[in-house]
Design a protein that fits this description.
mainly alpha, two-stranded antiparallel sheet, globular
Length: about 525
């Protein structure tokens, strides 16, 4: 039946993955619009249960994966290249970095770069710390960097590395299900594998929709600040429709003409905004604070990585850390595949170092400039920033810029950056979802990519109408759990594959041992006690 429907619609897909994912997404929208309050309440209850009973699981999983990746980077497996041994990267380091950053957390940094440090400064997460004190300022920066540093990029790097390894070294389809061949065998090409890919598609849809929702809230606040546009649900729906149309145009152009060019433009604009704040803001305070914040972050990282708020009744960690980890985890399938798509030819060591540390350095600079400047503004009473952020975090960056000259120009530049980050997140996600829902021997049809771009916009609009920021947080915290479990199996699968490859098993032996599938692959042979690789 699904095959007939696909032919009738003129699509090129894996019907079981495409129609199941689209059907579940459509069902959610159909329920969320007429029963918005009921849907919001249901996810609120589910989120409360997950946070109370499984918050520790999120914390332990992400930290363990970080240790695992760092171990791989320094191990004997680090020199393995993601592709033929003589292959070289498809993109320069600069182009690679701009694309993975723009597809990753660009939108999130724009939203939380000011809002999070100020929130923690006014409401410290740790007991015994006085709001507005020097210790509160230091802790605010440390926690913000924890949320946007190595742990966040660990969640993206894990699926990205596994997908790149299995795809470029062993010619498997670039889908999440391919990573589970050592566990599922040939069943990845049937209902079991389709189920994994459906989870990945839904996680991507809702994760990106959440980011689009947050970006829309912020965009609406900026337009209200500059032009007096009302901040209402239907205005936000209209903004989503406009930006989704722009994203659909970009996704039709493809990766090189669309995403890469927009990503490079946006990095330049972001650097201009950073330089503006650095020059007109408290430059010396920023420089001193950045140096101290780096030290505070790395010194606190070992205990903060395992901190679960066991001995307090506070709901702080659910609202912040668990939300971030779950949100990032739902993005992991799409960002992982996207990073893998642009990382062919790099070694495992280079991949891990680049994906973990390069964006983390940028996040350190971003929070150093915007977070420290915002704390300085709040300390000096220039703008009642904390009060405005507590009422509506989406206005944070625009309220913050009021403390500086040329506030209108800087706010307009911020709006342009938000729109482009919005667009690159949507169109790169659409490209990835299209890859997940079709076979590699099928062409990528523009109408399929546009469909997924539109689906993200519709889900984002539904979530906003169902409860705004609270609904976005509750849905993501709940839906991140299934893929959190998949991340663990990815690590196990990748390690088994690397160990078998290094020990010199033939492809047939690997298949019989349930390590990789029977495909053209790198085979390792031993000659006179030396290990060499024969790459087709």
């Amino acid at each position: 039946m699904l095959d007939r429907l696909q032919r009738m619609l003129g699509l090129q897909t894996i019907p079981g993955v495409f129609f199941t994912s689209a059907g579940i997404a459509a069902l959610f929208v159909a329920l969320a619009i007429p029963f918005d309050q009921e849907v919001s309440d249901a996810f609120g209850i589910l989120t409360g249960w997950v946070a109370q009973n499984l918050g520790w699981f999120y914390i332990l999983t992400v930290t363990s994966l970080l240790v695992f990746l760092l171990g791989l980077a320094v191990s004997r497996y680090g020199s393995i290249r993601l592709g033929a041994d003589d292959s070289r990267p498809d993109y320069s380091n600069l182009a690679w970095f701009t694309m993975l950053f723009a597809a990753g957390i660009g939108t999130i940094l724009m939203f939380w770069g000011v809002a999070e440090p100020v929130s923690h400064f006014a409401n410290p997460p740790f007991e015994g710390v006085r709001a507005g004190s020097d210790r509160a300022a230091s802790d605010a920066m440390t926690v913000a960097l924890y949320h946007f540093g190595l742990h966040t990029w660990t969640i993206f790097a894990m699926p990205g590395l596994a997908i790149a390894y299995f795809s470029y070294r062993h010619n498997l389809p670039m889908r999440i299900s391919s990573l589970f061949y050592p566990i599922l065998g040939e069943r990845i090409y049937g209902p079991w594998g389709w189920s994994v890919d459906v989870i990945a598609v839904l996680g991507t849809l809702f994760g990106v929709a959440t980011s689009l929702g947050l970006g829309t809230l912020q965009l609406n606040s900026g337009l209200s600040y500059l032009f007096g546009v009302p901040s209402t649900g239907w205005v936000q729906v209209l903004l989503i429709a406009v930006i989704t149309s722009i994203a659909a145009t970009s996704v039709a152009l493809g990766l090189d003409k669309g995403v890469r060019r927009l990503s490079q433009i946006n990095i330049v604009l972001s650097l201009l905004l950073i330089l503006f704040v650095l020059v007109v803001g408290p430059t010396v305070f920023i420089a001193e604070g950045m140096v101290q914040s780096v030290g505070d972050y790395f010194s606190a990282l070992p205990w903060l990585s395992f901190w679960t708020q066991t001995y307090t009744e506070s709901d702080w960690q659910r609202q912040w850390t668990l939300f971030y980890w779950a949100w990032t985890i739902t993005w992991a399938p799409y960002v992982g595949i996207f990073i893998a798509r642009i990382s062919r030819g790099r070694t495992i060591r280079e991949f891990i170092a680049g994906v973990l540390f390069a964006p983390t350095v940028f996040s350190l600079v971003w929070f150093g400039v915007f977070g420290l400047s915002a704390i300085h503004v709040e300390m000096n009473g220039t703008v009642a920033l904390a009060e405005q952020v507590q009422q509506d975090p989406s206005v944070a960056i625009f309220a913050f810029l009021e403390a500086f000259p040329l506030a209108n120009v800087a706010s307009l530049l911020s709006i342009i950056i938000i729109v482009i980050f919005f667009t690159t997140s949507s169109d790169s996600a659409s490209l990835v979802i299209d890859m997940l829902t079709r076979r590699e021997d099928q062409p990528s049809l523009v109408r399929q990519r546009i469909f997924w771009a539109a689906a993200q916009g519709v889900i984002a609009a539904s979530l906003l109408l169902a409860g705004g920021l609270d609904a976005l947080q509750n849905v993501i915290t709940s839906l991140g759990l299934p893929f959190c479990i998949l991340l663990i199996f990815m690590a196990v699968s990748l390690f088994r594959a690397l160990r078998a490859d290094y020990r010199g098993y033939s492809v047939n032996e690997l298949v019989q041992g349930r390590a990789f599938p029977q495909v053209e692959a790198v085979t390792v042979t031993k000659q006179e006690g030396q290990e060499s690789q024969n790459v087709p």
